[in-house]
Recover the amino acids of this structure.
């Protein structure tokens, strides 16, 4: 315990302190245990108001360099527009992670393996970042182009390194576009090597992890995933395209530094229907930049509608290109 303080390893210090609190509770000294827990919670909360990542933060090195991309989380849950059910699930995950030492006192572990499913731009990656931000943990994004290789056994070996890192360094680890790894093992266009990779992933997901690092897999195509994956996840969160009320909320949150005149939000919502959260954010951002360059401090409905129309045109052009290729 003294060594952890000398080395400024706060997480280890807090963990040992909570173990002492648990021992006190088992001896019947509940008041002392509760006081110790409260002090740890207070210290963690105070530290979270300082540096954005209060735990030991390091860039991936050695064999992991190029596979893990370190991102400093800049979002919290309040910064992402989500449905009430998604917010409730994420809030529950955060509470379990914050109280993970309490759960382990009773031989329980916090939820740490999540599957995010939903259309592109629906907030999956932003939610992973918000989770890291709420927990003051680093966000590591697994770069699949560096993970997956054509050499026998190499992909599974790299995957082993990633999961070893989750056990050594507490953080949030995001497998984006996960269907590239988790596709059906019986898929006709699959190869034996990728089946072995998926089997390795399933095995690694079952392993104990004392750091309680969060592993988040995100996919736009849940139907492509192997069914055996479902029982490996503690939570499956389904993201959807924004509703009319959420479209207004997204636009309002991204207006700074300008304001918007009184407009018919129903018209805006109808125009933006079918667009993802990220597309609406970009449309709003483009409208704001135009107003800044034109030295205006007020946006009009036409400003927003024009940029929303552009996003629809971009989507249609992309779909036509895919259809012709």
């Amino acid at each position: 315990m003294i060594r952890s303080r000398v080395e400024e390893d706060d997480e280890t210090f807090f963990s040992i302190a909570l173990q002492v609190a648990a021992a006190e509770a088992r001896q019947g000294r509940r008041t002392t245990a509760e006081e110790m827990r409260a002090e740890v919670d207070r210290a963690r909360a105070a530290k979270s108001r300082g540096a954005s990542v209060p735990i030991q933060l390091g860039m991936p090195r050695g064999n992991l360099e190029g596979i893990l991309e370190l991102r400093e989380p800049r979002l919290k849950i309040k910064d992402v527009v989500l449905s009430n059910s998604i917010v409730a699930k994420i809030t529950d995950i955060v509470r379990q992670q914050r109280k993970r030492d309490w759960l382990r006192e009773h031989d329980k572990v916090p939820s740490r393996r999540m599957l995010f499913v939903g259309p592109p731009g629906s907030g999956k990656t932003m939610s992973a970042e918000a989770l890291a931000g709420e927990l003051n943990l680093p966000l590591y994004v697994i770069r699949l182009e560096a993970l997956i290789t054509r050499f026998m056994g190499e992909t599974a070996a790299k995957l082993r390194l990633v999961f070893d890192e989750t056990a050594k360094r507490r953080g949030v680890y995001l497998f984006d576009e996960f269907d590239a790894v988790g596709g059906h093992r019986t898929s006709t266009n699959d190869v034996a090597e990728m089946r072995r990779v998926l089997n390795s992933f399933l095995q690694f997901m079952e392993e104990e992890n004392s750091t309680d690092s969060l592993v988040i897999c995100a996919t736009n195509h849940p139907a492509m995933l192997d069914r055996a994956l479902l029982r490996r996840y503690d939570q499956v969160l389904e993201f959807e395209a924004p509703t009319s009320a959420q479209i207004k909320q997204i636009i309002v949150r991204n207006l700074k530094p300008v304001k918007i005149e009184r407009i018919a939000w129903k018209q805006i919502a109808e125009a933006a229907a079918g667009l993802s959260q990220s597309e609406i954010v970009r449309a709003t951002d483009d409208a704001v930049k135009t107003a800044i360059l034109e030295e205006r401090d007020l946006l009009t409905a036409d400003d927003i509608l024009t940029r929303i129309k552009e996003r629809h045109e971009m989507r249609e052009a992309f779909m036509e290109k895919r259809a012709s290729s």
Summary: The beta strands are 68-71, 113-117, 139-142, 172-175, 214-219, 235-238, 259-260, 298-299. The chain has 14 helices and eight strands. The longest strand covers residues 214-219.
